[in-house]
Amino acid sequence: MTDTRRAPITAERASKLRRFASRITFVAAVLLLVVKMTAWLATGSVALLSSTVDGLVDVVTSFTTFRAVRLAERPPDRGHRFGYGKAEALAGFTQSRFLYGGALVLAFQSVERLVFPDPVKQIGFGLWVIIASLLAAAGLVILQTWVMRQTRSTAIAADRANYLADVAVNLAVLAALGIIRFTGWERVDPAFALVIAGYMFWNSRGIDTDVLKQLLDRELPPEERKRIEDRVMACPGVRGLHDLRTRDSGDRTFVEFHMEVDANLTITQGHAISDAAENAVRDLFLPQVVEVISHLEPAGIEDERLDNRVG
Question: Domains in the chain and their CATH numbers?
Answer without folding.
Answer: 11-215 (1.20.1510.10), 222-310 (3.30.70.1350)
